[in-house]
Amino acid sequence: MNKAKIGILGAGTMGSGIAQVAAQAGHRVVLVDLNEVALETAKNSFQTIFSRMVEKGRMTNQQLIETSNRISYASNFEAFSNCGIVIEAIVESIAIKHSVFSELEAVVSEECVLASNTSSLSIASIGSVLKHSKRVIGIHFFNPAPLMPLVEIIPSVQTSQETLNFSKALIDSWGKITVLTKDTPGFIVNRVARPFYGEALRIYEEGIADFATIDWAMTSIGGFKMGPFTLMDYIGNDINYAVTESVFTSFYYDPRFKPSFTQKRHTEAGFFGRKSGRGYYDYTEGVVLPNAIEDPVLGKQIFDRIITMLINEAFDALFLNVATKEDIDLAMTKGVNYPKGLLLWADEIGLDVVLTKLESLFSEYGEDRYRPNPLLKKMVKEKLSLF
Ligand code: NAI
């Protein structure tokens, strides 16, 4: 069963990346897109990528031919009729996913698993249109799929144990690191990572520090590969803002996830980041990036506040059984390259230190955003640690 034929719907950024991973793992893959140009682009990009791998000695010429031959292309859903699983990676719209999933069910076999690569939509809702909804599951890759090791596996309330076992074993066999997460907004990574952006924006809005100084604090004191503003400029403010807004709405407007006007205005102005030439920083050729104020006291204050908020969010995911402590830490280190798992980090900092910081923020601002997680409070009271 694990060498099942793989169907991928959507030949864009994610779909083509997932198709590449599956073909390199030895599966026959059919890539389907309504747009012929997208299929052509994907096909050409595979040739470029595989040729480069041959040049670097990571693939033989024979493997290039075999891997390329394993991928077929189609613009109709009938091509999925003999697939063991179809992974959907089309536009992030629940209405479109609903119509596509019922169309898919009409052409696939009874046993075929139907998966979505959605980053933010409910798997239960996607599965609601299916006659056999026990076959639905979320399989969430990170961009770029061939390079990022993490995949979040998201069973919904309808998903059967067989669907879950099959999907997890399949993705594990592709050499990916899988974590299991509940069907809740943002799953693990896109939920737990919110304060990295949100609290950085808040610190800026309060006038405590500028973009460069906040980035400097998080990289040089925190050890993060990129500071929040540099990272938002990479991701694109339009994309990052949309995820924040979607998580905020999905959590019934919990103030912990409140989006920021600074990011909204940057998005409205077209300051998306690197791709538009300007975001929080100006990427025009010849423009020198601003210097940080490298004040260790200020830097520590910034780092302490952001890491405390990140840890509180990781605690919330653990408290509400979104995932195990091991999977929460794996997700953040393998999905977004955090230098350490947040829960392990919490133990190192000291749970009492984290709680004291949160209590002081909560008392200073009086905002629900800073409320300490009940599990954190309980563990401090009982003098427990996580690992
Ligand atoms: P994309 O815009 O690069 O590609 C989407 C493709 O789907 C396009 O080629 C389009 O022609 C095709 N398409 C649209 N409607 C279709 C239909 N009804 N039937 C067949 N093909 C159709 O999008 P991207 O970025 O690859 O995202 C796809 C999904 O993956 C979305 O749900 C997104 O939220 C999710 N995702 C995206 C990530 C990213 O960083 N881009 C990361 C993880 C998940």
Name some characteristics of this structure.
Rossmann fold, binds 1,4-dihydronicotinamide adenine dinucleotide, 17 helices, N-(1-d-carboxylethyl)-l-norvaline Dehydrogenase, domain 2, 8-stranded mixed β-sheet, 387 residues, 2 domains
Task: Please write out the topology.
Layout: E1 6-9, H1 13-24, E2 29-32, H2 36-55, H3 61-70, E3 71-74, E4 85-88, H4 94-107, E5 113-116, H5 123-127, E6 136-141, E7 150-154, H6 161-173, E8 177-180, H7 189-192, H8 194-205, H9 211-221, H10 228-235, H11 237-250, H12 261-268, H13 296-319, H14 325-335, H15 342-349, H16 351-365, H17 374-381
Parallel strand pairs: 1-2, 1-4, 2-3, 4-5, 5-6, 7-8
Antiparallel strand pairs: 6-7
Helix pairs in contact: 8-13, 9-13, 10-11, 13-15, 13-16, 15-16
Bound molecules: 1,4-dihydronicotinamide adenine dinucleotide.
1,4-dihydronicotinamide adenine dinucleotide binds at residues 9-15, 33-35, 38, 89-92, 96, 100, 117-119, 141-143.
- Number of DSSP strand runs: 8
> What is the level 1 CATH name of the largest domain?
Mainly Alpha
The molecules bound to the chains, other than polymers, are: 1,4-dihydronicotinamide adenine dinucleotide
CATH topology of the largest domain: N-(1-d-carboxylethyl)-l-norvaline Dehydrogenase, domain 2
Whole-number tally of structural domains: 2
Helix content: 40-55%
pLDDT < 50 stretches? none
Q: Which outline best applies? A: globular
SSE run: EHEHHEEHEHEEHEHHHHHHHHHHH
Query: Whole-number radius of gyration?
Result: 22 Å
Number of helices, counting only DSSP H or I runs of 4 residues or more: 17
Strands in their spatial order, largest beta sheet: 3-2-1-4-5-6-7-8
Largest sheet: 8 strands, mixed
Strand percentage lies at 5-15%
Q: Let me know the average pLDDT.
A: 97
